């Protein structure tokens, strides 16, 4: 099988390729990059139609800077006489079930109770 080609205007990856692994019974995939990145790598267990998966998120190390024009910034007034609502988002949706406990309890079901 061949690796997919990378769009020409991709901002982080210039090329994907296989390489000779250091050990037998292993696989090596090389990401040729356009600059410095911060990788986040994690595995996902099988769920639904998907088998075991490896996810690689790549974040640019370039800091995006921005400035706020203080003359247009609005100040918030705090009122002590108001109800405070705290909402907790399980952060899972679509096909990602989130964590599943030893007894088969889904994290999102506990969080949403």
UniProtKB/TrEMBL annotation:
The keyword Acyltransferase does not apply. It is an enzyme of class 3 (hydrolase). Residues 86-113 form the MurNAc-LAA domain. It comes from the Bacteria. It comes from Pseudoalteromonas ruthenica. The keyword Hydrolase applies. This is N-acetylmuramoyl-L-alanine amidase. One of its GO terms (molecular function) is N-acetylmuramoyl-L-alanine amidase activity. Keywords: Cell wall biogenesis/degradation, Hydrolase. Belongs to the N-acetylmuramoyl-L-alanine amidase 3 family. GO terms for biological process: cell wall organization; peptidoglycan catabolic process. Residues 90-113 are annotated as: Disordered. It holds the Pfam family Amidase_3. One of its GO terms (cellular component) is outer membrane-bounded periplasmic space. It catalyses: Hydrolyzes the link between N-acetylmuramoyl residues and L-amino acid residues in certain cell-wall glycopeptides. Its EC number is 3.5.1.28.
């Amino acid at each position: 099988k061949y690796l997919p080609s990378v769009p020409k205007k991709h901002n982080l990856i210039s090329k994907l390729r296989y390489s000779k692994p250091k050990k037998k019974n292993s696989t090596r995939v090389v990401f040729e990059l356009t600059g410095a990145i911060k990788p986040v790598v994690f595995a996902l267990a099988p769920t639904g139609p998907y088998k075991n998966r490896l996810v690689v998120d790549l974040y640019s190390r370039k800091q995006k800077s921005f400035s706020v024009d203080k003359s247009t910034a609005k100040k918030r007034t705090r009122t002590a006489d108001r109800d405070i609502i705290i909402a907790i988002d399980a952060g899972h949706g679509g096909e990602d079930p989130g964590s599943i406990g030893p007894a088969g309890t889904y994290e999102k079901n506990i969080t949403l109770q």
